[in-house]
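Data deposition worksheet. Section B asks for the primary sequence of the deposited chain exactly as it was used as input, without tags or linkers unless they were present during the calculation. Section C holds the resulting structure in token form. Section D is free text for depositor observations; keep each observation to a single sentence. Incomplete worksheets are returned to the depositor.
Section A, Depositor: J.P.
Section B:
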Amino acid sequence: MKVSIRGEKTKITPAMTSYATEKLGKLDKYVEKSEDITANVVVKVRDHQDKVEVTIPIKAFILRAEETQEDFYAAMDVVVDKLERQIRKQKTRLQSQHLKDRKVFNFALEEEEIEEEEEKIVKRKKVEVKPMNEEEAILQMELLGHQFYLFKDADTNLPTVVYKRKDGNYGIIESE
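Section C:
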């Protein structure tokens, strides 16, 4: 796999390029014709933290992961783990759906070598959706320690979701 690395507000050293190439090389075993694929790596520095974004366009999919850590090397390790999980999930989906594009991934790997990660519903819960305003919903979400909260908007009487964003602010998803 070819690696294209660039930095925003930071200088990319040969050591960083070498490390990224080595780490992303681990993914070659999953992808057929890996020499035709280019992984695009963008390194950004913000608030004394390095953010690594990796995008790998494959024939039928685009694999993408990003991570922010104290240093580039730690972020790169986490991004590669995320990409590996994405490939495993795609492999499971493709095998179960019998799609034409099965040749995208190399399925000849030993089954013991790859831990299967199937997505499944592990819990189902019914909740009473009470009418309230957005501020009350945020307060209730914070009291419960959840990342999101479903409520009935007191003004519109429609189901609405409030959620906590990565930047610490809140978002609202309204139904029509």
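Section D:
The chain is about 30% helix and 30% strand.
The mean pLDDT is 82.
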